Amino acid sequence: MGHGTAPVTQVELFFDLVFVFAVTQLSAELRANLGLLGFLHTVMLFAAVWWVWVYTSWVTNWLEPKYRPVRVMVLVLMLLGLVLSTAVPDAFGGRGLAFAAAYVAMQLGRSLFMLWAVRGFDAGNFRNMGRISFWFLASGVFWIAGGVWPDPVRTWLWLAALGLDFVAPALGYYTPGLGRSATTDWVIDSYHLAERCAGFILIALGESIAATGEAFYALRWSQPEALAFPAAFVGVVALWWIYFDRAAERNADVFAQSEDPGRIARAAYTYVHALLVAGIIAVAAGDGLLLEHPGAAVSLPAGLMLLGGPALYLLGNGIFRRLVHPHFPVSHTYGLLFLTLLVPVVPELSLLSLAWAVAAALVGVIAISEILVRRQERR
Description:
Helix content: over 70%
Structural class: mainly alpha
Low-confidence stretches: none
Strand content: under 5%
Largest sheet: none
Radius of gyration: 21 Å
Distance between the termini: 31 Å
């Protein structure tokens, strides 16, 4: 069972501020590189940023940040995270080695700190962190080599590194001589981890709101821009509502009462939450294009962001709900169906028309969810 209700500490929230900057950088990177290779690179960089953040949340779930050495460790990670985030725009250029070195230092350094912190009194976690350190050491070779080599070799090496990083939890971090870990072995403060991941969703949504406001401020405030601004705002508010209204606390309760919280933590919070954040980043990038040229025809990259971002968010949130509850939400199924039906007519729409259609679809998801909940309550 998951135990504990330790609140998220101030130093953890302070650490998260770096990732507000990281999300901003990723959104800008996506808008600046609209080609297929640029999209791939942004996805890779996002995966690295998310993996750094979520592993840090796991460690502060196991260690008490109120202790000074843990706090110092988090602040050192914050500094390295700032280097990582600053290197994002030129990670596949001149700052590749800086990005790779910061990533490896954060992942491996934090794991080694955990080994030092739990030695002698937590044999299970000590073995587990030994396995994790082994995997990060293996992937670190590819990260550093990629940082040294220019593209296209860098892309292939970093894809291999990410493959190792992302497959490791699914394999139980199998390590020669140490075996593999089972999710039932992990003692988790379920509410703490759920709150941390919900906090990152808020970070991404907040960055989207800030980017929308900044872009709108810089415009002429003519009629098209005046209509585009509320469309972008309604879309982001709908994303917040879909995740947080009622469901967030209920999901955390189910998570805490599970017989195997480690399985839910790994699948629902470590892997699947990445889909939600990626969807929000795509929405933020799409909203930037919308506000710049609301009357323009929908290009393929803009369509992927304005339509694909919300679809990815709904899919991720639906899978998340499915992992903690018996069923994929009916409301999300209808929302994904409506977004799919928009695909054939996208070439005939302007960015403004598509944005309002997507906003209507998201509001429809909320309305259907409310209707179903009230029916269930009456029963």
